[in-house]
């Protein structure tokens, strides 16, 4: 009897033989690609995430022309006001971390018992203001060094920050003194929202430090993987963060990346998020292809993808 496993988003299914064929074909492509990548040296030299992934006062002076990452015709000249919200220097000290954990939001983390292992990493990266605590600690941990925030969350969950901003700033306390990484220059609508988030944090004096993705880095990264076979869509936040980790960490451990509806080993249903019931809206991203890429990087020993239970 042929078992079925959810492979494509949450509404499409692929049988195991089909999945294996797809993965094999993809693997041929991406194995070849990673050989071209040459263990990250091309990633470093072509994308320069080490000192360019994040906007700083050093790499983006007043008067620079920012070109938006998802709207290449939109530009913005850096004024002294905007410049004052940039962090001064590269937030990554000139050292490489030994072990980093990049935590995606897939429901595969539910009951995974991966919390301790995630928190044991020297540097922990989380995506899109995920829930922490509330009983999730055993499975996802609590430590955070970088957390990203998608502007659509600021719109949906915090009313575009048009009302009182304290609830938003207080909700960030669970991430401690981490860095809040915002895509302020992806689409035009992101800029005012992300600046409002940054101003709210400085007005209410929260320990979290707002920073912005450098759109120039996001464009380079997108072109880098596009020229190596990831043709469709823009890299997801999770994939961007894995790439940043690959430039900064000797050992990259990846958790919570499983954009499919069935557990790979236990075959039970898997939610899109470990903390809510929202289904995936991945119009701009090519999630099965991204997952395939992660799988290949895992089999090459470039990173360690955790899908099972950590017990
Ligand atoms: O909203 P967005 O697609 O950017 O991401 P998210 O749902 O907040 O999850 C953060 C990241 O985890 C995504 O960008 C994906 O890379 C990864 N993810 C995954 O691989 N599988 C899932 N079911 C959910 C998220």
Q: Helical content, roughly? A: 25-40%
Strand order of the largest sheet: 9-8-7-6-5-10-11
Work out the number of β strands: 11
- Helix and strand run: EEHHHEEHEHEHEHHEHEHHEHE
Structural class of the helix and strand makeup?
alpha/beta
CA-atom Rg in angstroms:
19 Å
Tell me, rounded to a whole number, the average pLDDT: 88
Termini gap: 30 Å
Poorly predicted regions: 1-18
Give the overall shape: globular
Bound molecules: cytidine-5'-diphosphate
Number of helices: 12
Biggest sheet statistics: 7 strands, parallel
Hey, roughly how much beta strand do the residues contain? 15-25%
How would you describe the overall organization of this protein?
The chain crosses the membrane at residues 16-37. The protein is 36% helix and 15% strand. The protein is globular, with a radius of gyration of 19 Å. By secondary structure, the chain is of the alpha/beta class. The protein has 12 helices and 11 strands. The protein starts with a strand and ends in a 5-residue tail after the last strand. Residues 104-106, 127-128, 150, 236-239, 257-259, 272-273, 280, 282 line the site of cytidine-5'-diphosphate.
List the helices and strands and how they pair.
Blueprint: E1 4-8, E2 12-15, H1 16-37, H2 41-47, H3 49-52, E3 65-67, E4 75-77, H4 80-83, E5 97-103, H5 115-119, E6 123-126, H6 137-140, E7 146-148, H7 151-156, H8 166-171, E8 179-182, H9 188-204, E9 209-212, H10 215-226, H11 237-248, E10 249-255, H12 287-299, E11 304-306
Helix pairs in contact: 1-12
The chain binds cytidine-5'-diphosphate.
Cytidine-5'-diphosphate binds next to helix 11.
Protein name: ST8 alpha-N-acetyl-neuraminide alpha-2,8-sialyltransferase 6
Transmembrane segments: 16-37
Organism: Dissostichus mawsoni (Antarctic cod)
